[in-house]
Amino acid sequence: MTRPERGPSLWRFAAPQHFYPLAGRLAPWFAALAALLTIAGLWIGFVVAPTDATQGQVYRVIFIHVPAAWMSMFIYLIMAFWSAVGLIMNTRLSFVMSQALAPTGAMFCFVALWTGALWGKPTWGAYWVWDARLTSQLLLLFLYFGFIALTRAIEDPRRGDRAGAIIALVGAVNVPIIYFSVQWWNTLHQGASVSVTKAPSMATTMLTGMLVMAIASWMYTIAVVLWRVRPMILERERHTEWVAAELDRLAPGAARKSGGRA
Predict the structure, then answer these.
(1) Residue 208 lies in a domain
(2) Are 116 and 129 in contact (CB under 8 A)?
């Protein structure tokens, strides 16, 4: 009795040569979803959602600020996850994914701090206060910068991968500090408007707009990371035959002019 043939395993995409074309096919779809959801989210947040009775129009910054803050924390945790996988399983793609995520996470962290300052001026009377959440969020931005600088400064990719992974894993401790800071300390920053343990403290339209923007941010992150990881894979795998073939397909004769292999 013959065994039925199994389809291709998803594990095959852990190999850079298989993940590279998959990333190229998926990225445009996620980018299109990000664009559509961003338009819908901004329309709900800035046109449909009612004016807040206490803060007036200025509250609408939450439709950018809150999703950016969520993403800055979650992306760092995903970086730490890929770093752990890379250290434990010694998978090349894991370290590349972690490093591809870092610039987008840093961007969201900066946006969260910047929009928070714009929100804080009319609300608190100051662009910045050394609030527990703001300070820990600023520390997160420095962790992103440190991770990016360290992985790019070390010439040996393997040493850079491991050094960056250690920063990612150690720095992940800061994420729960950011999230629970408003509960652990007496801070100016308001508590969470959305929680898994209680009903949301905002109108349904406001919540819908914020969640749509959060999903749009996720789609954007996936698209950008998939596009960013492709040239990183080519650089890491430049001495392999499949990269030489890919470069020759993209620019016929380029691989031969560079010495036979990329």
Answers:
(1) yes
(2) no
For residue 48, the SS3 value is helix
How many domains in the chain?
A: 1
Q: Measure the CA–CA gap between 42 and 261, rounded to whole angstroms.
A: 47
Helix (H) or strand (E) holding 154: none
pTM: 0.84
Contact 72/108 with Cβ under 8 angstroms? yes
Residue numbers of the domain that contains 162:
27-48+59-237
144-153 long-range contacts, Cβ below 8 Å, gap at least 24?
144/76, 144/102, 144/105, 144/106, 144/109, 145/106, 146/171, 147/79, 147/99, 147/102, 147/171, 148/99, 148/102, 148/103, 148/106, 151/99, 151/102
Q: Which of 181, 212, 193, 211 is nearest to 54 (CA)?
A: 193
- State the residue for tokens 């397909």: 249
243 within a domain of the structure (yes/no): no
185-226, pLDDT tens digit by residue? 555 555 555 554 454 556 788 889 999 999 999 999 999 999
